[in-house]
Amino acid sequence: MKRRLLPSIPQSLTVFLFWLLMAEDFSPANIVMALLLAWLMPLLASRMEREFAQLGRLRGVWALGARVLWDIVVANVTVARQVLGPRDKLNSQFVWLPLDLTNIHGISALTSLITLTPGTVSAELSEDRRFLLIHCLSTDDPDALVAEIKDRYEAPLREIFP
User: Fold this and answer.
1) Which residues are registered as beta bridge partners of 121?
2) What's the DSSP call for residue 102?
3) With 0-12 CB in 10 A as exposed, 13-18 as middle and 19+ as buried, what is 149?
4) What is the per-residue pLDDT for 22?
5) Which of 8, 31, 35, 99 lies in the 20 to 30 Å Cα band around 138?
6) How many Å apart are CA 64 and CA 21, to the nearest integer?
7) 133 neighbors 146 (Cβ within 8 angstroms)
C-alpha cells in the first residue's frame, strides 16, 4: 500500500526540493504545491513505460571517447574553414541514417555524439526507431557520411548497448 502511494521517496524529495528552489519562494502555498507535485510526479512516472539500459562490453568506451574528442577537434577546424570560406562551397543537406542500434539508450548516445560533433546535428528519430535524420552543414557524399557515422560511432555503441 505504501509503495502505491509513494513509489519513489528519493524522487519525491527531489521534486519537492527542486520546486522550492525554482520558485524561490517558501510561502505556505508554494510548500503545498511542492508537496502535491512531490506526491503526483512519482505516481505518474511509475506508470510510464520504461526501457532500462542494458550494458554490454565496456572495453570500447575509452577508444570511442578518444575518437569523439579527436573528431570534435577536426570538425571544429573543418567547420571554421567552411564558414569563413565561400558560401557557394557549402552543400547543406538532411541525410537519413539507417540504424542498427535498437537500444534507446544507445540511440540517445549516438544522437548526442552526432550533435556534439560540429557540422552535424541530429534532427529526428523515426517512430519505429529505425532511421535517424541528420542535418549536415556541408557534404558532397551523403553515403560516405552515413558509412562514417556507422563505422566510427554506431558500431562501438552497439557493443556497449546491445
Assistant:
1) 135
2) -
3) buried
4) 87
5) 99
6) 37
7) no
Q: Are 136 and 145 in contact (CB under 8 A)?
A: yes
C-alpha separations of 159 from 5, 65, 99, 142, 144 in Å: 39, 14, 14, 25, 22
**DSSP code at position 138:** S
In the structure grid, which three cell numbers stand for residue 123, read together?
A: 534532427
Q: Considering only the C-alpha atoms of the chain, give the largest distance between any 2 of them, rounded to a whole number of Å.
A: 67
| Amino acid (1-letter code) at residue 50 | R
pTM of the predicted structure, to 2 decimals: 0.69
Long-range CB contacts (within 8 A, 24+) of 103-108: 103/51, 103/53, 103/54, 103/161, 103/162, 104/51, 104/129, 105/51, 105/53, 105/161, 106/157, 106/158, 106/160, 106/161, 107/132
- Grid cell 502555498 — which residue? 29
Provide the grid cell at 125.
528519430
Do the Cβ atoms of 15 and 37 come closer than 8 Å?
yes
Residue 90 DSSP class = -
Q: Is 152 helix (H, G, I), strand (E, B) or coil?
A: helix
Residue appearing with cell numbers 570538425: 75
Residue 122 pairs in a beta bridge with 134
